[in-house]
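Task card 7
Instruction: Convert sequence to structure tokens.
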Amino acid sequence: MAAVNKRRVLLGTIVGGAVWAVWSWVVNGVLLASQYAAAQTLGQLLKQPRYPLFLVYWFVTILLLSYILTWIYVSVRATLGPGPRTALRVGFLAGFVLGFPINLLLAAWATFDRMIALGWMVDLWLGAMLATFVSAWLYKE
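Output:
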């Protein structure tokens, strides 16, 4: 097994995380904006986050998740083979774990519109796939 190219892991993490951050902004800042406003008006969501630096925390979390997914991809290349199929498989499976269970629960039990939970699930699931795909594309041994 070849040594892990840590510089490429870092590059993939940064670029994959940036792609995921843009995707997250599109989902939350554009697609869900009207649902957020309606839920806030009804008192179902806070108008301000409990944590003043929430957006910073969110994007740092996305960067950390991108790092973890890049390492998982690099680790499974030996058994599943390098390339986009493996990257998408890793992203699909991890995205499911990250996004589906909690948002299924929220869609069933939360008082806000189910579209918010769907949007959050899509943000995490597709974001994980995009980040892993991009980081895999940049990874070279």
